[in-house]
Write a structure and sequence with these properties.
The protein has helices at about 5-15, 30-45, 75-80. With about 80 residues, the chain is an all-alpha fold. The chain has one domain (about 25-80). It holds the Pfam family Arginase.
């Protein structure tokens, strides 16, 4: 969520060409496009190190996280992308 991150963080990510999406965009309707762009990104990589920050999940899914997201992204969206 843009309200959970600083403008400087987004500016740096954009300057570095980081692939990112806001939680509002992570929906079932957008899943085919997300999958496609993720596949294109991975196709450019020689190596890929994947981690998942628990902050991405809704507070109800990851209640012990130090910075839980109010909205977050449901596991139903994340799982097919793994």
């Amino acid at each position: 969520t843009r309200t959970s991150n600083t403008p400087a963080l987004y500016e740096t990510a954009d300057a570095l060409g980081v692939l990112h999406r806001d939680d509002e965009d992570m929906t079932q309707a957008n899943l085919p496009d997300i999958h496609k762009s993720l596949g294109q990104f991975i196709g450019q990589c020689d190596y890929l190190y994947r981690t998942i920050d628990l902050d991405v999940f809704p507070a109800a899914t990851a209640p012990g996280d130090s910075a839980p997201a109010a909205r977050g992204v449901s596991f139903d969206i994340i799982e097919p992308l793994l």
